[in-house]
Amino acid sequence: MASICVVGAGSIGCYVGGRLAAAGVDVTLVGRERIGQEIAEHGLHLSDLHGAQIDVAAEAVQFRQSLDDQISAELVLVTVKSAATATVAAQLAPVLNAGTVVVSLQNGIGNADVLAQSLAEQTVLSGMVPFNVVQGGQGQFHQGSEGSLEIEDHPALGVWLESFDSAGLALVRHQQMLPVQWAKLLLNLNNPVNALSDLPLKCQLSKRDYRRCVALAQNEALRLLELARIKPARLTPVPPGWLPRVLSLPDWLFAKVANRMLEIDPLARSSMWEDLVAGRVTEVEWINGEIVRLAERLGRNAPVNAKLMALIRQAEQGGARDWSGKALLAALTEAAEQGR
């Protein structure tokens, strides 16, 4: 049987790998000792917002902590944080067989390119996980929002389609992934706002001031994307260019017009919030930082996204991460005005 290796067994890696293992796929997870011990003791317990409950016995998943030994898997899913991409690529290069298919399922825009620089003998593809996964401890991983796996189309994927379908993780294939990645990044601009609010996603998105913070960041990004002649794909019922206006609607109207945006598990949080709570460095550099770098390439600035980056970095160092919507909106509005 063909096998899959998931490199980066965190929330996304354990959930995706666990679903595949539950469908009978030969899966190896590569991650930290803590996660390995948790799985060995409790197995994996996977759930989603629609009530699915999937248990995977510990012996159904192989686990390793390093990339020192040869990886014979025909498909490798990379789910490490973006900051670790270059390091992981260098570690994978000597242990993968030529022709192995490697898929980046990471936040940000350029991770597949970084992988490809070290993996010249492998087939490297871009991918994206649009849904949120929350760790609950003792092997519990919960999908708290909607979405299907999005992936760059390639003939080599054909042999895997049935496995992903059986796992309930149907692959949505695209000829061009860059518009899809930018569309996902626009949605991910909510991540720092959620992290700074210290609220569950559904609660945070139900409050207009927080949504207006996201709208400021998205408007800034959309203007820059238009200048760069980049057209984001449509991933939601609301076209990308309409998102800021919809988010800015009064609460009662937003709840009616964009009710699908609130189809989120009440306990779901952003991965950036989880990183702050765990004392880890966040991926803000690969979310809002992408907008700031795009602005620099265009000879412009992105004061709102730069301000969100600064606030998250302060929070990483122990700064405030319980901002009210009113206070955060005032800080971002001031940054926007000063940046004009």
Textual characterization of the structure:
By secondary structure, the chain is of the alpha/beta class. It folds into two domains: 173 residues, Rossmann fold, CATH 3.40.50; 159 residues, N-(1-d-carboxylethyl)-l-norvaline Dehydrogenase, domain 2 (Orthogonal Bundle). An eight-stranded mixed β-sheet has the order 5-2-1-6-7-8-11-12, sandwiched between helices. Helix 1 links the parallel strand 1 and strand 2. The N and C termini lie far apart (58 Å). The model has no long low-confidence stretch (mean pLDDT 94).
In short:
The chain has 340 residues and is of the alpha/beta class.
Helix/sheet category: alpha/beta
- Count of extended strands: 12
- CATH homologous superfamily label of the largest domain: NAD(P)-binding Rossmann-like Domain
Number of helices: 15
Number of domains: 2
CATH topology of the largest domain: Rossmann fold
Output the radius of gyration. 20 Å
Shape: globular
- End-to-end separation in angstroms reads 58 Å
- The string of secondary-structure elements, in order, is EHEHEEEEHEHEEEEHEHHHHHHHHHH
Give the averaged pLDDT, no decimals: 94
Indicate the CATH architecture of the largest domain. 3-Layer(aba) Sandwich
What is the CATH domain class of the largest domain? Answer: Alpha Beta
Low-confidence stretches: none
> What percent strand?
15-25%
Helicity level: 40-55%
Biggest sheet, open or closed, and with what strands and sense?
Answer: 8 strands, mixed
Strand order of the largest sheet: 5-2-1-6-7-8-11-12
